[in-house]
Amino acid sequence: MATLELPIETYDGPVDPDWCPACGDFGVLKALKQAAGSLGIRPDDMLVVSGIGCSSNLPGFIHAYGVHGLHGRAVPLATGAHLANTDLTVVITGGDGDGYGIGLGHMLHAMRRNLNLTYVVMNNQVYGLTTGQASPTTGLEVVTKSTPRGNPELPLNPLAMALAAGCGYVARGFSGDVAQMAGLIAGGMRHRGFALVDVFSPCVTYNHLNTYPYFRERVYKLEEAGHDPADLAAAMRAAGESERLPTGLFYQVERPSYADREPALADGPPVKRPIKGNGDAFRSLIAAMC
Amino acid sequence: MGALSIGIGGAAGDGLARCGDILARTGTRLGLHAYAYNSYQSVIRGGHIWLTLRMGEDKVRSHGDHLNLLIALNQDTLERHAPQVEAGGWIVYAADRLTCPERLPGKDVNLLGMPVKELLKPLGKVPPVMQNSVLVGAAAHLLGLDPAVLEGVTGDIYAGKPVEVIAHNVDATRAGHAHARQHTAALNTGWAFSRTARPFLTGNQAMALGALAAGCKFYAAYPMTPVSNILHYLAAHGPDFGMVVKQCEDEIAVIHTAIGAGYAGVRAMCATSGGGFALMSEAVGFAGMIEAPVVIVEGQRAGPSTGVPTKTEQGDLNQVFGASQGDYPRAILAPVDTADAFGSVAEAFNLAERFQMPVIVMSDLALAEHYETVEHTDLDWDMPIDRGERVDDVAEADGYLRYRLTPSGVSPRALPGTPRAAHIAASDEHDEAGILLSDVFASPPMRRKMHEKRMRKLEAVAAQLPPPERYGASRPEVLLIGWGSTGGVIREAVDLLSERGVVAGQMQVKYLLPFPTGAMLEAIDTARRTVVVENNLTGQFARYLRAETGHRAHGLVLRYDGEPFTPGYIAERAQAVLTGRSQPLALSEGEARECAYHYIRSRLGDMAWPATLRRVGEHVYGEPAWEARLEGRDDGHDMGLLVIGADTGAVLALHHPIPRTQEAAHGHA
């Protein structure tokens, strides 16, 4: 981990997380604080937006501005806040049910729009807050409370989906490696556009299949395997791996963000501009109606 | 003379909107008031479009019940509307393309068949749609509109088109005007033409302008009739005012981006119709919970479901009241006319920011899309702006509490980015700091106090809202009670009733929530009878009125066929209530004709038209029925008898005529 511009305690929240002991989300919270600290982002200039779920409670456990939104709606909520105040660093945190289930449509559009948002998905392959139903990333034939005879659905591959949707920054972390994850999140925050950081974040209570040991046996780091993050085809191949599980930066490409293309933002964030616009322009609109 | 009504009919793609626009703007530039309503169908070409333009020297508040001048762009229009032209009126059409059957126009109705092809010959090869400009020129002469102003408006309306298109249209209006002047005198309108032009705009435009004047910096929408034009207008002009305009993937995203922007500190608005609002509803309560300001325009159209997408209704009241789970503070405003649409949006932003809550502005297709003249002073750029209590900085030692429990319920807001005020705005119930009242940090009393704090804000809202506007007699025999967009037409109905000797008054409700219970009870006490007038089937407002005041209206005037009210429609039914007559639900002759047209168009193409209608008693078909005699469009030959049940509206029979060959054979026998 790079040296911190701001100490990690800067971001200590008002209350301790109420996650189950050893929940993978603790690692994500720590990595997020480290990422913010490494970039020196002041808590007052950071906005963490979430939906609903265990992992979506994260904004309550970090010292920064936060919105705890409705289930699946973090992306549009963050979109509005970002476009109103592009000076804020906006991070979305949530789970696989929230992001890849109920909120999937929003995520795909945010990717193709290249909104300057960093989305950290704590993917535990199960619905935890509602006590253990199948999620969009639960494996085929896996038994959960809602699939007692085995899950009949193929799991979603979020990384392949993101690559196909035109996401310009696609990465995967693992809660067992906070330092790597912090680097990936910081990279996403620095990235000019939408960044997806999918994280294997084990649910120790409701998922006894995708555990820490399960991932430790399978993960390997792309950066140590000679992967070129500029190579989309290689990224797609890596995303398709299922025996060994690659982590790290799959793909990154620089292109103008949505804000770069938005004419109304040319003169700075709307929230910092005077409330009244151009009176002459208004009067000419009225004149055109006469 | 008072206001005159001009009807323009044709198929979609006939260029009808431009005709109306040119005539209306010529009139308004000359100082007239105008009101235009377009009955259209959701098709690109084909179908029947009918635009009514009413103009006069005094304020015009509805499209009225009359037809004084008909401009027919196709045969269909002549057939349908020629009989509606009133005595002394005119029918203008291209005589070399259309024929007006002699029996159609009423007594003392004048025909002005224009030799369009001949008049256009000097222009060389021009598209057939150029006939419109010739007819507009003729109509302008009949109305006594200054041809120089007409030419100027024509040039403006076609601005941006190739130079020869503009020149041809100007020449065509000039030719039409000159020909009409040669052949007939202008109507004696008595209009003085002050030449002071007023803005002529739609409710959608008024709302968009209201948002710009209020300093709105974020607008989100998903395309949906009847509010898409707000999106188009703001997409075109918003960036000049520093406004970000975002089309989203669905209405759920729309409202959340607006709430996100509002939370982050800009004035944010979104608009939709009933179906989109259904998708938004969970988020409305969310905005109430995190106390984020947002303005939502709900432009109603005929429901349920996709319903009649291009027709009007006031049928979403129950939905808007019922939106979102739980109790939360919000205000619901329903502007009473076009001018008020501008002011209501501006007011909605002040309420939303001062009380940190969602504010819903209820419009409908009729208000959203009809054009109306308003005064310049109605569109006030310098309206007051109240951004509410805000915290811009917090001293190191003072802890900031976003949801501080205050007597007023309003907790000063800190926008993200404010130094030392970081907090969480939570969808879950929370304490003063924003910390979630989860299973771990449960607190029933904190839940109670926070819930009360939010709802307490409505007391101050109620105290600052003005009472509903009263019009007409102070002690009326009948008090017409309306809400929202019907303000103008009900007022004209009150005038009409007064002319007929009925002492009438009007109470038009704009603030639906918080409801002005006291003012309503006082008004009700002044009247002998109350009649609620609303554009829906069940009387949704009447039920709400009863819930809030205990008063059950003596009668209802409802309309739910997709059309907006006219003064005559309201007056006639209000009188029926007064005399204890029940309102028959059977099809009128006009409605039966429209049913016949629908049947013909959807099953027989354009071959036939319902030439005559005859009502027969129930002994023939088991219910009273309308027999429509169908005639061929080409030569008027008998195409059979279409029988429509007057009670049910069902097609009871289609009697085919005896084939002509057979008929001939019989003749020879």
Helix-strand layout with pairing:
The complex is a heterodimer of chains A (290) and B (669).
Chain A: H1 25-39, E1 46-50, E2 65-68, H2 74-84, E3 89-95, H3 96-102, H4 104-113, E4 118-123, H5 158-164, E5 169-174, H6 178-190, E6 195-200, H7 212-218, E7 219-221, H8 232-239, E8 245-252, H9 258-261, H10 279-287
Parallel strand pairs in A: 1-2, 1-3, 3-4, 4-6, 5-6, 7-8
Antiparallel strand pairs in A: 5-8
Chain B: E1 4-12, H1 16-29, E2 33-39, E3 46-56, E4 69-72, H2 75-81, E5 90-94, E6 110-114, H3 116-120, H4 131-142, H5 147-157, H6 163-183, E7 200-202, H7 203-213, E8 216-221, H8 228-237, E9 244-247, H9 251-264, E10 267-272, H10 274-290, E11 294-300, H11 317-322, E12 331-333, H12 338-355, E13 358-364, H13 365-369, E14 371-373, E15 424-426, H14 444-464, E16 469-472, E17 478-483, H15 487-499, E18 504-509, E19 511-513, H16 517-525, E20 529-534, H17 540-549, E21 555-558, H18 567-578, H19 589-604, E22 608-616, H20 618-621, E23 625-632, E24 638-645, E25 651-655, H21 660-668
Parallel strand pairs in B: 1-4, 4-5, 5-6, 8-9, 8-10, 10-11, 11-13, 12-13, 17-18, 17-20, 20-21
Antiparallel strand pairs in B: 1-3, 2-3, 2-14, 7-14, 12-19, 16-18, 22-23, 23-24, 24-25
Helix pairs in contact in B: 1-4, 1-5, 4-6, 5-6, 7-8, 7-12, 9-10, 15-18
What percent of residues of chain B adopt helix (DSSP H or I)? 25-40%
- Integer average pLDDT of chain B: 94
The CATH architecture of the largest domain in chain B can be named as 3-Layer(aba) Sandwich
Number of strands of chain A: 8
- Counting DSSP E segments of at least 2 residues, the number of strands of chain B comes to 25
Major sheet description of chain B: 8 strands, mixed
Q: How helical, in percent, are the residues of chain A? A: 25-40%
Unreliably modeled segments of chain A = none
Helix-strand string of chain A: HEEHEHHEHEHEHEHEHH
- Provide the spatial order of strands within the biggest beta sheet of chain A: 2-1-3-4-6-5-8-7
Low-confidence spans of chain B: pLDDT under 50, at least 5 residues?
none
CATH superfamily of the largest domain in chain B: Pyruvate-ferredoxin oxidoreductase, PFOR, domain III
Strand content of chain A: 15-25%
End-to-end separation of chain A in angstroms reads 65 Å
Based on helices, strands and strand pairing, what is the structural class of chain B?
alpha/beta
Number of domains of chain B: 5
CATH architecture of chain A: 3-Layer(aba) Sandwich
Mean pLDDT of chain A: 97
